[in-house]
Automatic annotation (TrEMBL), chain A:
Pfam family, any one: EF-hand_7
Protein family (similarity comment): Belongs to the recoverin family.
Residues covered by the EF-hand domain: 95-130, 131-166, 179-214
Cellular localisation: Cell membrane
InterPro entries on file: EF-hand-dom_pair, EF_Hand_1_Ca_BS, EF_hand_dom, Recoverin
GO biological process, one term: regulation of potassium ion transmembrane transport
Protein name: EF-hand domain-containing protein
An annotated Gene Ontology molecular function: transmembrane transporter binding
PROSITE patterns found in the cross-reference section: EF_HAND_1 (PS00018), EF_HAND_2 (PS50222)
The organism's place on the tree of life at top rank: Eukaryota
SMART domains assigned: EFh
Gene3D superfamilies membership: EF-hand
Keywords, comma-separated and alphabetical: Calcium, Cell membrane, Ion channel, Ion transport, Membrane, Metal-binding, Potassium, Potassium channel, Potassium transport, Repeat, Transport, Voltage-gated channel
Taxonomic path: Eukaryota, Metazoa, Chordata, Craniata, Vertebrata
UniProtKB/TrEMBL annotation, chain B:
Major subcellular site: membrane
Family of the protein in this entry: Belongs to the potassium channel family. D (Shal) (TC 1.A.1.2) subfamily. Kv4.1/KCND1 sub-subfamily.
GO molecular function terms listed in the Swiss-Prot or TrEMBL record: A-type (transient outward) potassium channel activity
InterPro entries reported in the protein's UniProt record: BTB/POZ_dom (IPR000210), Ion_trans_dom (IPR005821), K_chnl_volt-dep_Kv4_C (IPR024587), Shal-type_N (IPR021645), T1-type_BTB (IPR003131), VG_K_chnl (IPR028325)
Assembly with partners or alone: Component of heteromultimeric potassium channels. Identified in potassium channel complexes containing KCND1, KCND2, KCND3, KCNIP1, KCNIP2, KCNIP3, KCNIP4, DPP6 and DPP10.
Membrane topology: Multi-pass membrane protein
Any one GO biological process: action potential
Region (Disordered): 143-167
Residue span, BTB domain: 40-139
Name of this protein: A-type voltage-gated potassium channel KCND1
Highest taxon of source: Eukaryota
Compartment(s): Membrane
Annotated organism of origin: Cyprinus carpio carpio
Signal peptide limits: 1-16
Amino acid sequence: MSGCARCCKHGLMKFALSVGKLVRGTLIKDNLDDDLELSVVCHRPEGLEQLEAQTNFSKKELQVLYRGFKNECPSGAVNEETFKQIYSQFFPHGDASTYAHYLFNSFDSSQNGSIKFEDFVTALSILLRGTTTEKLEWTFNLYDINRDGYINKEEMTNIVKAIYDMMGRFTYPALKTDTPKQHVDAFFQKMDKNRDGVVTLDEFILSCQEDENIMRSLQLFENVI
Amino acid sequence: MAAGVATWLPFARAAAVGWLPLAKKTMPKPPVDKKSRNDEILFVNVSGLRFQTWKNTLDRYPDTLLGSSEKEFFYNEDTQEYFFDRDPEMFRHILNFYRTGKLHYPRQECIQAFDEELAFYGIVPDIIGDCCMEEYRDRKKENQERLAEDTEAENATDTPLPPHSTSRERLWRAFENPHTSTMALVFYYVTGFFIAVSVIANVVETVPCRPPKGSKKDLPCGEKYTLAFFCMDTACVLIFTFEYLMRLFAAPSRCKFMRSVMSVIDVVAIMPYYIGLVMPENEDVSGAFVTLRVFRVFRIFKFSRHSQGLRILGYTLKSCASELGFLLFSLTMAIIIFATVMFYAEKGTKGTNFTSIPASFWYTIVTMTTLGYGDMVPNTIAGKIFGSICSLSGVLVIALPVPVIVSNFSRIYHQNQRADKMRAQQKVRLARIRLAKKGTTNAFLQYKEEGGFQGRGSDNALCLKNRSSFEHQHHHLLHCLEKTTNHEFTDELTFSEMCMTESVGYRTSRSTSISSQQGVATSCCPRRAKRRAIRLANSTVSVSRGSVQELDTLQVHKTSAGPQSSRSSLNARTEDLKLNCEDRDFTAAIISIPTPPANTPDESLPPSPAIPGILRNSRPTSFTHETVKISSL
């Protein structure tokens, strides 16, 4: 009963306030002001020399990268929604949002929901100019969704499903429902050395180093920029 | 894919490393990027204003001029920059498009100029950002309407009739445009007069006149002078009927005419009379007959043919139909609401006027429109409160659509003003352009007469030197054509004289002809014999090579210093323009006509208004030739 009375009192207060606003002629204006304040937040990256020291890029390359980045995101940071949209544009056939979500998390080193230029450039530096160990470490972090140091079957299934989602429905041969599961099983067969159902970082790196194909492919993306 | 996403492509490709451990097959080799990845700054010089931008910026939109290899055509090796001979102010906006991805429309620029620039740079106008799209669309629509009006005005009324129009066409034209002939004008005024007479008669016949002797009651004049009014009515109706039948006969499409508003008004105006003639004089139907006489007042609408203002009002109301409809609907809603409320509020009062809800409608309407006759007044307090709310809301509801109607009226009225002004100005403009074009490109004929074909040896060779190489080449071309067809160019006067002298039986040895598109037959005329003021009708040179049809209209105008006559009124300005052989300074005129000229002997103004004109005055000549030229290249 008292809760009801409190509710009524609250409602009455609100009504009185809005009548007051009506009288003063300021009824609709408040919402706009609130919205305006949120949008102007700006990030600036650390200096060029620092970034050059931290990453494997030259000054010129950093300049080119930053110009492109700043043009796309004048505020200096990308949030997850925008990132998903951008990534989806590259894969119009299927649904890239799940994979983009995992990718975003792996890029967002500070886990605050936005990728700043430093995160962007650090990740690119690893992927394009890093050693194979660094690249494999990055991939491990991508697969390890909950960041507990182990990849279990469930995490792997999620990742693989997300990748197959990007393919879309119309593939040849047609996708069957257990294709991801089979893929995950094959993966674990190869990677899980001690058959304990999870893959650790060391197991992962070791298994990948044994595979010639993987090693060779890792070199492929070095000239992307 | 949006161009901005191109920035993220390297990033997406790099992220593909994440797929590698899962891959079942080996990855394909990446494409080799041949061009250097170093970003460089490009210099773009637009009419002297130098812009600099990254190459990457321009590459964002590869299907435009600046983003594709098309810009290499504009590359200047000496200055190491891309040079465009276009408007630098506009280029700023174009470049901003590359930089920000959004194209903005500058409000102060002409919409056509902007469109042309966009077309040049290969940018589709659809990508104009939302902020400027509305303005762009409005301006574009306005411009197109204006152009449509202009072409309509050009094609309309004052162009002379084609020579073989039937009497029916001429009659229709006379009805639609009374200014064209005197008869039409007379008829126009006569009908106007009779409309006025008819309306006044209708009004006057209800005024009470002094009663005839022996009677006390005042009689309306209509009943006192029945015969007079009847005669007047008959006369008016006869004229209207005649006019209607004539229009019906002359109309190009009778069905369409019969369905048009004016025709309906005409019919409604004259029908009551005929029905009255036919109807017997009996008591039952005379009531209906009286009602019919009301329709005679519609004759006043016939004035709208005579008055443009009335027509404008009609168009305005038509164009505001939706606002008026909304007004009516909201008024109806409000009336019903308030009438109900007032009825129930006043229900208890004794002897109240609010006997029913429909009875309250009258009160509500009178109150909402702030008339306030006072024949129905609320007595209860509640009634008075609701009555006041009713009148306040009435003011608001009625005031709302009024500005819309007013602005529509103003727009249409000004459009009409503009159309009239344009028509007047058009006449003056045409006359001036005609004047300027007169005597253009008699250069070729002058050239021939001065013995240009005979080479440099002749006396007049000196005069030829002042011509540009362009002219030389052009004349050579025309000469080649003459040789090809074995006919020669000449002017209209000579041609018409040839025709006349031919009929008289006078022939000369040289046969000259005008090669025109119609393929007019040859006629005899010595080349240099006559020089009188004439106009050359469409002597056209079709350069049939290539797809571009550039038709040179050679028009000659030569006058001698004598009492030359027919063109003098038009040439009043050019009396002082004479040519001297020594310092001849004219250039040939090529007027590019995008469409083939009409097959009329008149000088027809080329439909495209894009004729840049440079008038060059020349000094006196021994021949007293007057040449006023337009050089359009």
